[in-house]
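Ops channel
N.P.: pipeline sanity check, posting one input/output pair.
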């Protein structure tokens, strides 16, 4: 079935402007979403989702209350939730493989929902801005088109994307909302910021930097974060980037150099340093097994001992 807005089928979209002109309530909804207070999420209840990752769980989860992600400039943050089962998925999409990512997101939620009676699939899209390269616009359209292709009825509830998530400061366009959280118990979606992005932040960033496809990082049945395994080859040429100034790194390693958060360059350098210190991923995944992390009583993610 097609994507639905207020229980009516969305016709084929040629522009985000056309969608918002036909459904003007999205403009007011986006304005209200942007006006929500920015919440600094307690890491003791958080599962952080990095770029090209998704995670799904249910309200029964004792380890995760909030799924969250941030640092989205041209990227889009996708929340899909089944209102009957409460099964919820958060994905951080950058346009690398939208047409294969969206079916995975839908499958994650429908699988966890089982044969839940009642309820519907609700979609929340946040991210992007009115960037010069129109990268955000293209990703917005691709995501909407990909969800339209799914067999399930999916109701678009929040659409704070691209021009509706754009703010101009000192003549520079940037996103109004860079990050969100979703409370898996209540379904509440809200602007958010995070003091920590673990577990295994550097490893996960390295996997994205080398160009992996989107991966699911959480097994809700066991309440385990699973990272890898993956492979990469030694690349001493990466040292070059550690000698460059911030402007050069932003220009060549960002899709939106003028809109990145302040810590972007430091994050890139941290990731490159990790790859240089681990020229091969083999030692990070003994026996070719993933790294797994479980929530401790004090609320931290702790790596499980190797079997």
């Amino acid at each position: 079935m097609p994507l639905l807005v207020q229980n009516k089928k969305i016709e084929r979209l040629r522009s985000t402007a056309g969608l918002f002109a036909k459904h003007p309530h999205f403009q007011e909804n986006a304005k209200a979403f942007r006006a929500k207070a920015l919440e600094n999420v307690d890491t003791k209840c958080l599962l952080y989702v990095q770029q090209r990752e998704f995670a799904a769980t249910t309200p029964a989860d004792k380890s995760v209350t909030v799924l969250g992600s941030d640092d989205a400039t041209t990227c889009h943050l996708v929340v899909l939730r089944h209102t009957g089962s409460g099964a919820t998925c958060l994905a951080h999409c950058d346009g690398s493989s939208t047409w294969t990512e969206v079916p995975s997101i839908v499958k994650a939620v429908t699988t966890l929902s089982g044969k839940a009676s009642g309820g519907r699939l609700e979609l929340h899209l946040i991210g992007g801005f009115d960037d010069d390269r129109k990268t955000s616009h293209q990703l917005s359209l691709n995501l909407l088109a990909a969800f339209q292709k799914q067999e399930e009825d999916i109701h678009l509830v929040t659409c704070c994307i691209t021009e509706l998530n754009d703010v101009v400061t000192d003549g520079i366009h940037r996103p109004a909302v860079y990050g969100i959280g979703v409370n898996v118990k209540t379904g509440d979606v809200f602007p958010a910021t995070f003091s920590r992005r673990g577990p295994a932040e550097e490893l996960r960033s390295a996997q994205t930097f080398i160009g992996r496809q989107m991966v699911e990082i959480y097994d809700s049945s066991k309440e385990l974060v699973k990272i890898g395994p993956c492979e990469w080859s030694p690349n001493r040429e990466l040292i070059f980037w550690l000698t460059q100034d911030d402007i050069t790194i932003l220009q060549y390693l960002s899709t939106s150099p003028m809109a990145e958060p302040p810590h972007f360059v430091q994050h890139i350098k941290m990731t490159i340093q990790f790859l240089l210190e681990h020229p091969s991923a083999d030692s990070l995944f003994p026996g070719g097994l993933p790294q797994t992390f479980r929530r401790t009583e004090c609320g931290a993610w702790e790596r499980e001992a190797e079997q």
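N.P.: looks fine end to end. The mean pLDDT is 94.
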